[in-house]
Specification:
Radius of gyration: 26 Å
Largest sheet: 4 strands, mixed
Family: Belongs to the cation diffusion facilitator (CDF) transporter (TC 2.A.4) family.
Membrane topology: Multi-pass membrane protein
Number of strands: 4
Number of domains: 2
Distance between the termini: 18 Å
Strand order of the largest sheet: 1-4-3-2
Main location: membrane
GO molecular function: cadmium ion transmembrane transporter activity; ferrous iron transmembrane transporter activity; zinc efflux antiporter activity
CATH superfamily of the largest domain: Cation efflux protein transmembrane domain
Number of helices: 10
Keywords: Membrane, Transmembrane, Transmembrane helix, Transport
CATH topology of the largest domain: Alpha-lytic protease prodomain-like
Structural class: alpha+beta
Helix content: 55-70%
CATH class of the largest domain: Mainly Alpha
CATH architecture of the largest domain: Up-down Bundle
Order of helices and strands: EHHHHHHHHHEEHE
Strand content: 5-15%
Length: about 350
């Protein structure tokens, strides 16, 4: 049985709740991520519409998430740039290639804010007839750029370390080098915690990957202390050896970040989210059976396509009511879900396949 209100079988309610309740009950693509006027109109409509929740005064969740992301990027960019500039001065005074590798990596980490900022800005744009799901996937493209920057910093740091092994040179200002390592660790760890925390809260894989990147930068900064300590004990090759180890550590971050972005590009989701969605649907009155459940990330928001079974003798209005209730329940109980398409099928009578006409196309 096709979902009510559609001559075929798909019917998507544009309830872009995301727990922020910017209800856009329009049924077209253009109204899902409308401009400021549409959001104001939606808020006004919501304010005079009876509802069982107390969040009508909250801002649109998608815009709030992007705003938080932009704020994180601005603050972390300033912190990492300041850290890298301090380290760069000490590199010129000391000639430490381990510290050079750490400095290059910190500059690269600061620069990753640029593609992410562009992605968050694009994500605010309204959906169009060409980009019907909006521009949220720009975050995944930014993630690819971040992976490339991580790889480039690893290659450059490794090259400088190998070059110093081949052409040894004395280090100067060992105390300053050690201090720069501590500064690098503190700056990166603070940025990492901030990015990972907010990234997970708003569901941004790119921001989490960037935070993991910064965390490893912090530990590689501590490794600079080993190079300075070795040089102070009369082993000058300790500095380039540590620089080489830093390059290897960056490669491990590269692997983790690439895997995270690959999963997003391939529409992978945590299987626990599927289980949670199925459990939510099973509790909706009128849902006789839970069929296929599909989730995908579009930027830092989830979209769902689900199938439910309703009584085969239910009226069109009754079946539609169950589908709307299922969608509404999903919106409020599944984290970061922004939109859902609920397809209702008649559950029974036994032995009848209501999709038999489609078998040849599957």
């Amino acid at each position: 049985m096709a979902h009510p209100n559609s001559p075929q079988h798909g019917h998507e309610h544009g309830h872009e709740h995301g727990h922020g309740h910017a209800h856009g009950h329009g049924h077209g693509h253009g109204g899902r991520r409308g401009g400021g006027f549409r959001r104001l109109l939606a808020k006004a409509r919501h304010a005079v519409t009876p509802h069982s929740h107390d969040s009508a005064d909250k801002t649109d969740t998608a815009l709030e998430s992007s705003s938080r992301g932009m704020r994180v990027l601005a603050i972390s960019f300033a912190a990492l740039t300041a850290t890298a500039l301090v380290q760069a001065v000490i590199v010129m005074l000391s000639g430490s290639v381990a510290l050079l590798g750490d400095t290059l990596h910190n500059f690269a980490d600061a620069l990753t804010a640029v593609p992410l900022a562009i992605a968050f800005s694009l994500g605010r744009r309204a959906a169009t007839r060409r980009f019907t799901y909006g521009y949220g996937r720009a975050e995944d493209l930014a993630g690819v750029v971040i992976v490339v920057l991580i790889g480039a910093s690893a290659a450059l740091a490794g090259y400088e370390a190998v070059n110093r092994l081949i052409n040894p040179a004395d280090m100067q200002a060992l105390g300053l080098v050690a201090a720069a390592g501590v500064v690098g660790f503190l700056g990166n760890e603070w940025v990492a915690r901030y990015r990972i925390k907010v990234g997970r809260e708003i569901g941004s894989a790119a921001l989490v990957a960037d935070g993991l990147h910064a965390r490893t930068d912090g530990f590689t900064s501590l490794a600079v202390l080993l190079g300075a300590g070795g040089a102070a004990l009369g082993f000058p090759l300790a500095d380039p050896i540590v620089g080489l180890l830093i390059s290897v550590a960056i490669c491990f971050v590269l692997r983790d970040a690439a895997r995270e972005i690959y999963h997003r590009l391939m529409d992978a989701v945590d299987p626990k989210l599927i289980t949670q969605a199925e459990e939510i649907l099973a509790t909706v009155p009128g849902v006789e059976r839970v069929g296929a459940v599909r989730l995908r990330w579009v930027g830092h928001a989830l979209r769902a396509e689900v199938e439910i079974g309703v009584r085969h003798d239910a009226s069109l209005i009754e079946a539609h009511g169950v589908a709307v209730a299922a969608e509404h329940r999903l919106m409020h109980e599944l984290p970061r879900l922004r939109a859902a398409t609920v397809h209702a099928d008649p559950d029974g009578p036994a032995g009848i396949d209501h999709h038999a006409v489609l078998l040849a196309h599957r």
